[in-house]
Amino acid sequence: MSMSTSAPAAKVAGGPLLISVVPNGDFTIQLTPTPAPLNEKPANAVPKRARLVQFRVSRTVVQQHSSFFQTIIGNRPHLGDVTFENKGNGFGYALEVWLRAIHNGIHTLPHSLKATHMERAWVAIGVGEQFGFAPNHIDKIKPWFLDCYQYALSNGGLTPFAACCLAFPCSVFDHAEGFMKLTKFLAYNTNGNIFTHNPSSFHGLNADARILDGPLTTARAHIQSILDRELNFPLDKLHKATCNCRKETAFDYEHALRALDCWPMDRAVQIYPIADIIVELEKFTFKPKSTKCTSGVCTHDFKNSVNIAIRKAKYAFDGLCLDCMERSQEEHVDSQTRQVFMEKNSPFKGCWDMECRFGHGRASWYYSWMGPSSVRREILEKHREDKKGCGPSRRARRGARVSKDGTNVPTAGLAQLSVNPQTSGRIANATGGKDKETKDHRDNYDDTDVDDDEFFDAEEASLGGCTVTDDGNEPDHGTST
């Protein structure tokens, strides 16, 4: 960042633009135009109007809200102005938002400063970090960001591009509901490896934003594995059968899935988002040709198995939770005993969203984890042992959670799958991105630590049809409907 503390305002076309953030301000922050490239211009070209921008502010206020200005003014107490280069693309706009917010409150912003572009949310974060307003005073402009968030979703709808642009700003501005909603949408409605898009020139934010890539990649792989395992269940039964018609039935079942372009699953997810695959699976129809199967396996209700796969996939992941991410930050381990850290991050009576602003299941807790993997593994092992001690049980129906005082706490209605309305037709019309699940992601978010009885509920022959499900009233694979 270039800075001058003594150069007077240069004479440029149109003169400086003076913005009095506070009347009779005793300190001036000046932005100079970005230097123009050295290109040859036609003799009759009209010069562009490049203007200095000067903000009259309070020296005391900027010192109180910015470590950056506190250092500058502290070193030169009699300094009256500072000059920075205007980086363009909303730089001066974002700085004015910050200055007006810390001086007069965010609700005093003029209509011209209302956020109507998702890019400006990123620029505001970059400017805030550059001038030392963020992260300590990020709450000062949070209402402004919420307006930006609502405007984007109201005028363009919830699309993969909007979710990619807004997910990271939601985490920075601590918008827990929006963050959970957008990260769930990204897991179900995209099939690439990059889950964030930075439309601003503050490329330094990319490293922080990429922290979402690992958790969301493995969360999506988890949803995929549920679909794959549940759809494979009828095939497993057919391979164990002894009837003569089993091979033809297995072929016809897979052929029906292939006709929807949903099988094999590992190929389908490379081409289509999971939400599109689910839409197509809802069209599944199949009736075995065999009517006199000696083993009875070929008369299995295949449509019911597909419906169960759809339902479990839809409710497999609620999105990432900012509260779980914050509680499990690795730096918190050193500030408290390991036991206290584990207790704060452990479930209570099977609820994984205690003290979270919005309700969610265990998958959201698991993929939101930011602490040591060894501690997460220990929490899961303890939970597994506690379940064994309590005997067989079913999980509570999603939609309400129990607080530690025993009362029901209503949860947010975020469990319903958000499907992109633009892809409600044949998934063959979808774009063909690829989802490459890397070994690094699998190592960093090792979902093999998760016990199968909650994450995968496919019926096993040895269990005699007794399974654990999300919903106690949900029929199992072996139940005819």
Record keyword descriptors for this entry:
elongated; disordered C terminus; 481 residues; 6% strand; mainly alpha; 5-stranded mixed β-sheet; 20 helices
Short structural description:
Residues 433-445 have a biased composition (Basic and acidic residues). The chain has 481 residues and is mostly helical.
Which structural category fits the helices and strands? mainly alpha
Mean pLDDT: 78
- H/E series: EEEEHHEHHHHHHHHHHHHHHHHEEHH
How big a fraction of the residues is strand? 5-15%
Cα(first) to Cα(last) distance is: 68 Å
Fraction of residues in helices?
Answer: 40-55%
Estimated radius of gyration: 28 Å
Low-confidence stretches: 1-13, 392-481
Region (Disordered): 383-481
Biased composition (Acidic residues): 446-460
Biased composition (Basic and acidic residues): 433-445
Biased composition (Polar residues): 417-426
What does this structure look like?
The chain is mainly alpha-helical. The protein has 20 helices and seven strands. The protein has helices at about 60-65, 65-75, 90-105, 120-130, 140-155, 160-170, 175-190, 205-210, 215-240, 245-260, 265-270, 275-280, 300-315, 320-325, 330-335, 340-345, 360-365, 375-390, 440-445, 450-455, and strands spanning about 5, 15-20, 25-30, 55, 80-85, 400, 410. A hairpin with a 5-residue loop joins strand 6 and strand 7. Helix 3 (about 90-105) packs across helix 4 (about 120-130), helix 4 (about 120-130) runs parallel beside helix 6 (about 160-170) and helix 9 runs antiparallel to helix 13. It is elongated, with a radius of gyration of 28 Å.
